[in-house]
Automatic annotation (TrEMBL):
Record keywords, A-Z: Signal, Transport
Originating organism: Amycolatopsis pithecellobii
Identification of the protein by name: ABC transporter substrate-binding protein
Domain Solute-binding protein family: 76-468
GO biological process: peptide transport
Signal peptide limits: 1-21
Length: 546
C-alpha cells in the first residue's frame, strides 16, 4: 500500500520539485532540516580524542575513514580507500585511495594527508592528549614516546605516500583487528592544513578536567557529507550543513541539527511536540505508546555489553577473586534483563555478544546464587564490605537505557547479600567517565560497550588488553592471551584463541558481564531512509523528510 501511495503521489511531487530544490539550496524549508534529539553533549569534535557515542554521532556525519561498514551491517566496504590489502605477514597494509576528494576547507585529500594523520597520532605529545586517545591506545598500543599512563610498545611503524593515491602503512607486528579497525570513527581523516592552523594537538589538563584546542571545539575539518556550522552550548544545539562538494551521495537535507536533551522523557515529549524528528534509545516501556502515536520504532540487533566494573586499586578486598565472584553471584541478571532492558535483552556470562566469533559456553559461569555469594564473602573475610558504586546520570546508552534504575537494581542485589553500597551519581560528560576511566576513584561502576566491528578484540581486547585505571589490576596471563588472539591471521585460529582468552577472563572476574540488549531508535512517520545499524553508527545523509 505504501508503494501504491508513493506512485499516486508522483505527479504532486513532480509539481513541487522546483520549490523543494530552492528550499534545499538555502536550508530554509521545514523538510530540509533534520533535527535529532541527542542523549548527551559531545565532549568535542576531534574524533581521535573521543570514545563515546554522543561525541561520535556528529563526527560520523563530518568525517570519513579509510574503510567503513555497509549500512545496516558489520560488513566492510570502501570509503576514502577503494581497495586495501595486507602483506603476507600482515605487517604492511596498502591502500588505494579515492580520487577527486576534498576536505571541507578545499584542500585535497591524498596519500600525504593519510600519512599526516597517522604520523600525528603516533607522535602525539603530552600525557593529557595521549590519555584521551582511548581507541588509538587500544588498537595501536603505544606512541613514539609514551607519556603518562601510556606504556605499550607501538604497533605503528611508519606511513609512506607511494604516490598521490597510494598510502602504505607499516606496522611493527600483525594486528588481527585490521582491516576492520581502520573503520573506527576515532581514526577519521582530518585536513592537515586545519590541524596545523587550529593547533589541534594542544590538549591540556587541570586536575580532572581537560581543555581541548580550537580545532576540536570550533573547526573540525573532514571530508564527510556534512560540514560543521556551530555548537550553541547555551541552547544545546550542534548544527551541521550539507557539504555540496561531497565525493559520494549528497546529503538529502541541507541542515542537520543535534538538539541535546539528556532526559529521555523530555526527548519523548519533544518528539510529540514536533520540535525534534527523532531520538535514540527510547525507553523500552515507551515502545508501544510511541508506535501508537504514529512513530517508527526501529530495533537494532543486540551488539553490545553492559558490565559492572570492578576497580581493585582502592579496596584491598576486591583484589580477592572470591569477593569478585561473590559480587557476580549476587546479581540477578535474568531479572535485570527482563525488568530494566528492552525485549530481547539477555543475561550475559561473558564480555561478548553471542553473535561474535569467540563467544563460548566453556566460560566459568557464576549464575545468580545469593547463598554462594554470602559464603564466598565470609570465606574472604569480607562480610559487611562497603563499596563506592559510581553510576552515570544525564545519559542514555544503547546498553544502558536508564543508568540510575539499573544501578539501583544492582545495588539492591548487592545489599541483599550484605554488601554496603554507597551510590555516587555523576553526569556522563560532567566528570563520570574521567573519574571512572582515568582517575579510578570508584570501587564499582556501570559501563558498557557497543561493538565497532565484528571482532572479539574490539570487546575483550578493549576492556582487558592492558592495564587500565578503570579496573586497577595487572594480570599478564590475560594480557598475553588477548595479545596472542589478536595476532592470529586466520578466522578459525582467531576464534579459538579468543575462546581460550574468554575462559581465562571468566575465571579471574575482572568485572561482571551483565546483559546484552537490542537498542531502538525512534523517528516520526514522515522520516524516511534512516538505516538502523547494529553498530549504532547511523549516517544521516540518506534521510529524507516529508
Amino acid at each position: 500500500m505504501r508503494r501504491l501511495a508513493l506512485i499516486g503521489l508522483a505527479g504532486a511531487l513532480a509539481v513541487a520539485m522546483s520549490a523543494c530544490a530552492s528550499e534545499r539550496g538555502s536550508g530554509g524549508g521545514a523538510n530540509d532540516t533534520f533535527v535529532f534529539g541527542a542523549a548527551g553533549a559531545p565532549k568535542n569534535f576531534d574524533p581521535i580524542f573521543n570514545d563515546d557515542g554522543e561525541s561520535f554521532r556528529p563526527a560520523r556525519q563530518m568525517f570519513d575513514t579509510l574503510v567503513t561498514y555497509k549500512p545496516g551491517t558489520t560488513q566492510l566496504e570502501g570509503a576514502l580507500a577503494t581497495a586495501w590489502s595486507p602483506s603476507t605477514d600482515g605487517k604492511t597494509w596498502t591502500f588505494t585511495l579515492r580520487q577527486g576528494v576534498k576536505f571541507h576547507d578545499g584542500t585535497p585529500f591524498n596519500a600525504a594527508a593519510v600519512c599526516f594523520n597517522f604520523d600525528r597520532w603516533y607522535n602525539m605529545k603530552g600525557a593529557a592528549a595521549q590519555s584521551q586517545m582511548i581507541y588509538y591506545g587500544d588498537v595501536f598500543e603505544g606512541f613514539a614516546k609514551n607519556e603518562g599512563d601510556a606504556t605499550g610498545t607501538p604497533v605503528y611503524k611508519s606511513c609512506e605516500a607511494k604516490d598521490d593515491y597510494t598510502a602504505v602503512l607499516n606496522l611493527n607486528k600483525a594486528k588481527g583487528a585490521f582491516p576492520d579497525a581502520f573503520g573506527l570513527t576515532s581514526l577519521s581523516i582530518s585536513s592537515p592544513d586545519a590541524l596545523k592552523k587550529y593547533n589541534a594537538d594542544n590538549v591540556t589538563q587541570s586536575g580532572d578536567s581537560f581543555t581541548y584546542p580550537e580545532y576540536a571545539n570550533q573547526h573540525p575539518t573532514g571530508t564527510g557529507p556534512y560540514k560543521f556550522d556551530s555548537y550553541d552550548k547555551t541552547n544545546k544545539t550542534v548544527t551541521l550543513v550539507r557539504n555540496d562538494d561531497y565525493w559520494g551521495e549528497k546529503a538529502k537535507t541541507a541542515k542537520l541539527i543535534f538538539k541535546i536533551i539528556e532526559d529521555e522523557n523530555a526527548r519523548k515529549q519533544e518528539l510529540a511536540a514536533g520540535t525534534i524528528d527523532g531520538y535514540d534509545f527510547p525507553s523500552p516501556a515507551d515502545y508501544a505508546s510511541l508506535k501508537d502515536a504514529g512513530n517508527q520504532v526501529l530495533i537494532r540487533p543486540a551488539f553490545n555489553i553492559l558490565y559492572l566494573g570492578i576497580n581493585q586499586k582502592n579496596n584491598p578486598k576486591l583484589a580477592d577473586v572470591r569477593v569478585r565472584k561473590a559480587i557476580e553471584y549476587a546479581i540477578n541478571k535474568d531479572q535485570l534483563a527482563k525488568n530494566k532492558l528492552p525485549t530481547g535483552a539477555y543475561a550475559q556470562t561473558q564480555f561478548l555478544p553471542n553473535n561474535v566469533p569467540g563467544y563460548t559456553d566453556a566460560v566459568e559461569k557464576h549464575s545468580y546464587d545469593p547463598n554462594q555469594a554470602k559464603a564466598l564473602l565470609a570465606q574472604a573475610g569480607a562480610t559487611g564490605l562497603t563499596l563506592n558504586f559510581y553510576v552515570p546520570t544525564e545519559v542514555t546508552r544503547p546498553y544502558m537505557p536508564n543508568p540510575v534504575d539499573i544501578g539501583g537494581a544492582v545495588a539492591d542485589d548487592l545489599k541483599a547479600v550484605g554488601i554496603n553500597v554507597n551510590i555516587v551519581q555523576e553526569p556522563w560528560n560532567g566528570g563520570y567517565k574521567d573519574d571512572v576511566q582515568k582517575a579510578g576513584k570508584q570501587d564499582l561502576h556501570l559501563l558498557g560497550w557497543t561493538g565497532d566491528y565484528a571482532d572479539a578484540g574490539n570487546f575483550v581486547g578493549t576492556f582487558f588488553g592492558r592495564q587500565k585505571a578503570e579496573f586497577g589490576f595487572n594480570n599478564p596471563a590475560i594480557f598475553s592471551a588477548l595479545s596472542t588472539a589478536d595476532a592470529q591471521v586466520t578466522p578459525e585460529a582467531k576464534k579459538a584463541a579468543y575462546e581460550q582468552a574468554g575462559v581465562v577472563i571468566s575465571q579471574y572476574v575482572p568485572a561482571v558481564p551483565l546483559t546484552s540488549s537490542p537498542p531502538a531508535i525512534v523517528v516520526k512517520n514522515n522520516i524516511h531512509n534512516l538505516i538502523p545499524t547494529p553498530l549504532t553508527d547511523e549516517r544521516f545523509y540518506t534521510v529524507t523528510k516529508g
